[in-house]
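Inverse folding, one chain.
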């Protein structure tokens, strides 16, 4: 029994002296097992710690994933709500787009109608302006041909030109050119002081009432008759009145000019009035630039002035001097033909009417 060796201990050869070698003690074997056990324990601890750490990380990841899933679910719900709202907004937008398209179609139709109306109004406005210009040019032609008033005709032509300038359309350029040519013709006329001649004639007319006649035109209303006495008998009064009437039948006056007519008061009044009419007729002739009528009226007025009025008086000398100055002036001007602008307006209107048809 003692010779049996432990199966775990190797057999030791006997020594040379024939004695068996001593077996190792149990402490040596323990010492050999202890490092492996420690290594296993450490490995187990490390595995446990790793498992615990992994578990902690897994829990953290699980919590994070859960949180993220919760957020994702919330966002998903919000997205669903937003999507529903977007679909609702889309429907409303489509409805609004449909309304806008309908309004756009209506506005396009209105625009077409407005453009047609504008074209019609523009055409009517052109016709209205053309009719107004034609009327102004007709007035200018009448003022020049009938009244001989070049100034009024010039003002009318300038008014027509200003209207065309304010309207400023290329189609009226030929008409405006004809109007400007007629304006230049009127501006080239010689200047006649119509206002000055008219004022002088008006002054002569006003001074006629104070011009003295060669023969006294007024008879005294009161004669130097003796006043009736209270004690005169009727026969004396009658004889005195008959004598006064007989004295009024004959008037004795010193006449330096034996050819001067003796005018009664009524004829003196009509003489002054007829002379005024002559001067007023001369005034109208100035406005018409009627040279022959102007000269004829002034000549007749001068003859009547020399024949019936006292030219030695200051008023008579002044009146005769004014008449001579007026008679020496010329009021005649050769009026130009300004029918070119009127004919151009009528031709333009006729052409436009034919083109409109």
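Residues assigned per position:
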């Amino acid at each position: 029994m003692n010779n049996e060796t432990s199966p775990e201990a190797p057999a030791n050869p006997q020594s040379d002296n024939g004695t068996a070698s001593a077996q190792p003690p149990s402490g040596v074997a323990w010492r050999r097992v202890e490092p492996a056990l420690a290594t296993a324990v450490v490995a187990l601890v490390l595995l446990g710690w790793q498992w615990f750490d992994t578990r902690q990380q897994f829990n953290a990841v699980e919590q994070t994933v859960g949180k993220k899933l919760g957020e994702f679910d919330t966002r998903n719900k919000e997205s669903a709500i937003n999507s529903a709202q977007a679909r609702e907004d889309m429907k409303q937008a489509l409805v609004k787009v449909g309304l806008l398209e309908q309004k756009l179609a209506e506005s396009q139709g209105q625009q077409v109608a407005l453009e047609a109306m504008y074209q019609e109004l523009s055409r009517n406005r052109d016709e209205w302006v053309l009719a107004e210009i034609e009327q102004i040019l007709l007035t200018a032609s009448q003022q020049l041909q009938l009244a001989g008033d070049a100034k009024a005709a010039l003002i009318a032509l300038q008014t027509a030109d200003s209207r065309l300038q304010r309207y400023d359309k290329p189609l009226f350029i030929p008409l405006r050119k004809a109007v400007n040519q007629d304006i230049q013709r009127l501006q080239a006329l010689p200047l006649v002081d119509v206002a000055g001649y008219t004022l002088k004639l008006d002054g002569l007319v006003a001074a006629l009432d104070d011009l003295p006649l060669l023969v006294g035109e007024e008879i005294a209303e009161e004669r130097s008759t003796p006043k009736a006495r209270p004690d005169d008998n009727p026969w004396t009064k009658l004889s005195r009145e008959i004598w006064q009437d007989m004295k009024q039948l004959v008037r004795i006056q010193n006449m330096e000019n034996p050819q001067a007519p003796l005018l009664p008061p009524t004829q003196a009044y009509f003489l002054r009035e007829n002379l005024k009419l002559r001067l007023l007729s001369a005034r109208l002739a100035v406005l018409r630039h009627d040279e022959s009528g102007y000269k004829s009226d002034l000549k007749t007025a001068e003859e009547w002035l020399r024949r019936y009025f006292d030219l030695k008086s200051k008023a008579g000398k002044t009146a005769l001097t004014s008449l001579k100055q007026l008679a020496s002036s010329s009021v005649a001007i050769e009026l130009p033909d300004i029918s070119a602008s009127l004919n151009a307006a009528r031709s333009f209107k006729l052409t436009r009417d034919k083109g409109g048809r």
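The chain is about 70% helix and 0% strand. Residues 1-22, 216-225 have pLDDT under 50 and may be disordered.
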